[in-house]
Specification:
Oligomer: single chain
Shape: elongated
Radius of gyration: 18 Å
Order of helices and strands: EEE
Distance between the termini: 44 Å
Structural class: mainly beta
Number of helices: 0
Number of strands: 3
Length: 105
Amino acid sequence: MTVNIGFFVLIRQPGVEHSEPVARLASLHEEPFGYDITYALSPLSRSVPYIVQVRSSNQYEANTDVQILVGCYVWILSNINDMETHVNALLAWHLKKMTVGVVPG
């Protein structure tokens, strides 16, 4: 079983959608080898902010609208053979600040 938790940044312009690399916060990979396993990831720290810096490899024309989406993801992969798997995942977050800068081209 593989579990990844992280942030993503998606930049949209009319007719163009570009996803930037994500920041992985936590990762788990366990091989049960036929045994029952139970595993829980530790809660993520809430005492310090998580900072994601992204510099787009794309160029955007001046004076056009650009939509920037920032989100979180939980990605779970489980390969099973004549078994059951149950996964409960919860990731909630609150964006307090987003700063966007322009780099002249």
